[in-house]
Design brief:
Blueprint lengths: L3 H12 L3 H66 L3 H27 L6 H28 L1 H8 L2 H79 L15 H10 L3 H46 L4 E5 L5 E4 L1 H6 L13 H11 L6 H14 L3 E6 L5 E8 L5 E7 L1 H23 L3 E6 L5 E4 L1 H7 L3 H4 L4 H4 L2 H15 L3 E12 L3 E12 L8 E8 L1 H10 L1
Antiparallel strand pairs: 1-2, 1-5, 3-4, 4-5, 6-7, 6-10, 8-9, 9-10
Length: 555
Amino acid sequence: MITKPTLQHYAREIGNLGIGEKLNAIVTLLVFLTAFLLIMSVQAVRLQSAFREDLAAASMAAINIERVNGLIYAIVMESRGIYMSTERIKVKRYGDQLLKRNKELADVVSNWEKELRSADVEQFLGFKQRIAQFIEFRKELVRRAIEISPAAGREWGDNDTNRALRTELNVDLEALARIHADRAHEVAELGDKSRYASWYLFLLGLGALTLAGVIWRVMKSRVIGPLAQITWATGRIAAGKTELIIPFIERNDEIGLLARAVQRFRDTTCRNSELEQLEIDAARQRDSVIGERDKLNDKYLETKWQLSAALNNMPQGLVMYDSKAKILTTNIGFRTMYELPPHIIQPETNLRDILVYRANKGLFTGNVDDFMVATLDRIARGKPSVRDLSLADGRVIRVSEQPMAGGGWVSTHEDFTEQRRRERILERTEQFLVAVIENVPEGIIAKDARTLRYVFVNRAAEQMIGMLRTEIIGKTARELFPTQAAELIEQRDRQLLTQNQQLDEIVDTVDNPRRGRRTIAVRRLQVGGTDRESHLLVSMVEDRTEQAKVANAAA
């Protein structure tokens, strides 16, 4: 180990070198620095090449995973189209699309296999086999749906074996994604190394430039310039200006010896001036620190008062606690909500103390220990949460929790009893209305007044039109009925838009694509206004086809 005296010895030896000797040392160092710069340049090129190759491989693998996942999803969607179709024409269309996606999936897997590394072949073989099973399974699905019946295709495809195969494919994709995610991390590390190498090159280049500049400037800055400055300082001292600083006194060469000789006869006066200035600066700094302390103290008291006023005027209860569930602060709303006396909220109070007190007062249900474990787990995970708590007195409290910087937790408590009661009343009302509308004998149809698209039909309307509501909702009359019938329906809708309601029955005869020519009696009204998003046209329809036939026969 090199001792301190030895280091000082070497420093003195270097300082005692002449200007020419220092120049030779700088040139030698520049040569070594240039050679090292060349070696680092070669290493940087190698790192960049490896980085580009690994980055390209990781990117292509990620693209292949996304393409396979997307094609599997597209094939599943086409299969669902086959399951839901009852017409062979639609089944044929979905089947053609499914077979097309099958071929694309096989091509992607084949191309992917060509790009595999040797370490990935074994992992990929199982995935490739399941892809082949998946493709063959879907081909058989299309064949059965087209050649036998859509029901046979649905029976073949909608089963646990199909779902198990899809689950295994998802597991394979996740495993491959994890492998390439690890490789992407390795690529990132390689990129970091490349970046470090670039920084090394930059620093080495900067060092080489600096040394070249030192060589160029050594004669000017280390000999001619210093001599001129010492000559100028000598003239100023001769004129009585002792406040100036003599330059280059730290040098150990000839220039330093000359500078120290000029320095000696003015050291005492300069030292006294410096001591006086230091005392003045210290006094000023002390006064400034005292003033800043007073300002900060006033600001602290003002901020504390404002924060206390804001917290205690919140409509919600608020409690803050640290990562160990120690209470930091509460507001009046929180203490009032749970009837907490002053002696409960102390500097060492824990959330558990409050829960035990609430349980004894009948304002907490459940197990205190389990609640504390769940709370500490949420704090550790640092994820916000919102939940409703039911108290024994019938109140419902909505608790919103947010993490704080440093691992603490802030929780707001709001009495949600009235809102919950209103929600339940609204839910019961909605259920009642749905039950009434679905069971009235008249067909009830609602359209969006802006687009004239169907947004609701009841069970009676489904029977009158002869279509399921899934076939009706979202479409216009022109998409469901013949042209003449659609134009008549739209004409009636436009008439209604010019009025508020149309409660008098209008009897029309329309062609129904499913049930033929029908005679219907319709009453219409508007719900909402043109300035609302819920502006609807509601029609109440009664099928009088049979009555019209009886009347015509009697006539």
